[in-house]
From TrEMBL:
PANTHER family per record: MRNA EDITING ENZYME, SINGLE-STRANDED DNA CYTOSINE DEAMINASE
The keyword Ribonucleoprotein appears for this protein: no
General function of this protein: Single-stranded DNA-specific cytidine deaminase. Involved in somatic hypermutation (SHM), gene conversion, and class-switch recombination (CSR) in B-lymphocytes by deaminating C to U during transcription of Ig-variable (V) and Ig-switch (S) region DNA. Required for several crucial steps of B-cell terminal differentiation necessary for efficient antibody responses. May also play a role in the epigenetic regulation of gene expression by participating in DNA demethylation.
Protein name: Single-stranded DNA cytosine deaminase
Subcellular location: Cytoplasm; Nucleus
GO molecular-function terms, A-Z: cytidine deaminase activity; RNA binding; zinc ion binding
Length: 196
């Protein structure tokens, strides 16, 4: 099916702060071609990790096979259950540099290992620097996904408890990750001066 089952969406995209047991990454996508002031939808659907291959790399292989016209502009929008890992962020950044006529927006339900002292935050910074627009999913984004990618049997999307609070918390964390490092150092110095 081109549409995701409701239970898969609700389980995998729930923006919990501690998402134990959720090992797969799901990626819902929309590909549009921009012609001056209008855009034309070319494809939409969803993917998930396959054995030994992360979903972001699967999508990049899929779209590279399209042989995109370098004279046209394309916009790709992703809604992902997890933010990209460091390696995937590197692949995406490289892909974007190879396709300057393509813009990528990524809306993420959760941040992958960004609370640990691992490379993932640096991967997000590099991805952002390469031109990807990255943000945390809000109620509006979950609502859009529910109506676009989910076999919802015309049921209205009902957010779960904590959806808004978790989106705000994760958006603040992402904003701190994306701050230039000199601004982070300036903030640390200011907190030291204030005794905080």
């Amino acid at each position: 099916s081109i549409l995701m089952q409701r239970r898969l969406f609700l389980y995998n995209f729930r923006n919990l702060r501690k998402a134990k047991g959720r090992r797969e990454t799901y990626l819902c996508y929309v590909v549009k071609r921009r012609d001056s002031a209008t855009s034309c939808s070319m494809d939409f659907g969803y993917l998930r990790n396959q054995m030994g291959c992360h979903v972001e790399v699967l999508f990049l292989r899929y779209i590279a096979a399209w042989d995109l016209d370098p004279g046209r502009c394309y916009r790709i929008t992703w809604f992902t259950s997890w933010s990209p890992c460091y390696d995937c962020a590197q692949h995406i950044a490289s892909f974007l540099r190879s396709y300057p006529n393509l813009t990528l927006r990524i809306f993420m339900a959760r941040l992958y290992f960004c609370e640990d002292r691992k490379a993932e935050p640096e991967g997000l910074r590099r991805l952002h620097k390469a031109g990807a627009q990255i943000a945390i999913m809000t109620f509006k984004d979950f609502f859009y996904c529910w109506n676009t990618f989910v076999e919802n049997r015309e049921q209205t999307f009902k957010g779960w408890e904590g959806l808004h609070e978790n989106s705000v918390h994760l958006a603040r964390k992402l904003r701190r990750i994306l701050l230039p490092l000199y601004e982070v150092d300036d903030l640390r110095d200011a907190f030291k001066i204030l005794g905080l």
